[in-house]
Amino acid sequence: MNKPKITYFEQEDILHLVISDEPESNSLELSLNITVELNDDGELIGIEILNASAFIQDMACRLG
Predict the structure, then answer these.
(1) N-to-C CA span, the chain
(2) Residue 34 class from Cβ within 10 Å (0-12 exposed, 13-18 middle, 19+ buried)?
(3) pLDDT tens track of the chain, all 64 residues?
(4) Rg (CA), the chain
(5) Is residue 47 classed exposed, middle or buried when 0-12, 13-18 and 19+ CB atoms within 10 A define those classes?
(6) In which order are the strands placed within the sheet that holds 44-50?
(7) How far apart are CA 37 and CA 16, in angstroms?
(8) For the chain, which terminus, N or C, has the lower number of CB atoms within 10 Å?
(9) Pairing state of beta strands 14-18 and 5-9?
(10) For the chain, the helix, strand and coil percentages under 3-state DSSP, each to the nearest 5
């Protein structure tokens, strides 16, 4: 297993979490702004969050 890596693309407001460097073979949209990336075995290898700043603010308020 690789060390997880988080990248924030400020201009696009996208947060991308890479759990493994394996190639992506499929993806699954969990909600309007959250997509998970899967390998050939259906294992989670990444997460992409669109409109990340609003998502993080909302989560912070909920955990408040």
Answers:
(1) 33
(2) middle
(3) 578 999 999 999 999 999 999 999 999 999 999 999 999 999 999 999 999 999 888 888 888 7
(4) 13
(5) middle
(6) 5-9, 14-18, 44-50, 34-38, 26-31
(7) 10
(8) C
(9) antiparallel
(10) 20, 45, 40
